[in-house]
Design a protein that fits this description.
The complex is a heterodimer of chains A (233) and B (86). With 233 residues, chain A is mostly helical. Chain A is built from twelve helices and no strands. The two termini of chain A are 28 Å apart. The chains are: A mainly alpha (233), B mainly alpha (86).
Chain lengths: 233, 86
């Protein structure tokens, strides 16, 4: 039951337990309000709950970065199953198998970077919760929900470039990269698009993400645009 | 200020503290719940409602201590009754 709790979470649980003991003892015994009782109550009502709130919030925010948390809304079941499937060759699954991403692969790829990245990601997370509970997604089946899932904004290539710096010789040697450099920089072309590296979650596409990974010799009929409908709500 | 003093005079200190304890226990319950069962609504409730309840509990306790110290001041200010019996 508590095997998933982080060390910070355990500190929060310990503080909560100690505070609860102090408060319950006061409620049961009802001692006179002398200085000693006041100090104990200050610890039980101020210091320990304060520590518990701070560490509990930290533990909660840490938890929100884990795949299991994203998967706690049923509309994400298929995404999580695909990401965890050792046989899947989707972009999401291949990245999730990387130990660097580990159990935080949703967050690593979908969080915004930069000064306000963390804050904006959490704010968007609140929108997800609102859409899920008030937007009717919690009532939908997988078949009904998946086609309606859409990113709030086109996927930003900067997220890919946190790891793939696009400055190494190998990257520069690929003609497509050089030809599309400007479009990639301006997000007009997404790294995760059909014809390039394939959709991150190809099963969400009407054709099941056919032609997800471009063959090196395959000619590109047209410049693929950044996907607007993909992934988490 | 005088109104606040009058209100503090009326409030029963033990009731305020008991209320603070109950409110704080609810907040702690939310925190523990969000850690043991980290679901979106629980985590959001713990970091918003839970923290608000913690603050309310601390505020109630502060009011109780203030009310108690005001009463102690009053008790000390009243001169002890002089025994006039022969």
């Amino acid at each position: 039951m508590i095997d998933h709790v982080s060390p910070v979470g355990f500190v929060a649980l310990l503080c909560s337990l100690c505070a609860a003991i102090i408060l319950v003892v006061y409620l049961v015994r009802r001692p006179p309000l002398d200085l000693s009782t006041k100090l104990w109550l200050f610890v039980g009502l101020g210091v320990l709950p304060g520590l518990s709130s701070a560490t509990g919030t930290t533990a909660g925010l840490q938890k929100t970065t884990e795949v299991s948390f994203c998967g706690s809304c049923h509309v994400m079941d298929l995404h999580v199953a695909d990401a965890r499937d050792p046989a899947s060759q989707s972009l999401a699954a291949r990245h999730s198998r990387n130990p660097f991403f580990g159990d935080r692969s949703c967050y690593t790829c979908h969080s915004d970077y930069g000064r306000f990245g963390y804050f904006m990601t959490k704010l968007n997370g609140m929108k997800h919760v609102q859409k899920y509970y008030l937007g009717g997604f919690h009532r939908l089946s997988h078949e009904e929900a998946v086609p309606q899932l859409a990113l709030f904004k086109p996927y930003d290539n900067t997220n890919c470039r946190q790891c793939h710096t696009t400055t190494l010789a190998d990257w520069m040697r690929t003609p497509d990269h050089i030809a599309l450099k400007e479009e990639l920089d301006s997000n007009q072309v997404s790294c995760a698009s059909a014809g390039c590296h394939g959709y991150a979650h190809p099963f969400t596409k009407p054709d099941g993400g056919a032609g997800v990974v471009a063959k090196p010799a395959a000619a590109k009929p047209e410049v693929p645009s950044a996907p607007s409908k993909e992934e988490a709500p | 200020m005088t109104r606040l003093r009058m209100m503090l005079d009326r409030w029963a200190v033990p009731v305020l503290i008991r209320l603070a304890c109950v409110v704080a226990l609810s907040a702690l319950g939310l925190t523990v719940g969000s850690i043991v069962y980290p679901r979106p609504l629980l985590v959001m409730a713990a970091s918003s409602i839970g923290q608000m309840l913690s603050l309310v509990a601390l505020g109630l306790y502060a009011l109780a201590v203030l009310a108690d110290s005001l009463r102690s001041e009053k008790r000390e200010a009243v001169p002890p009754a002089v025994d006039e019996s022969p």
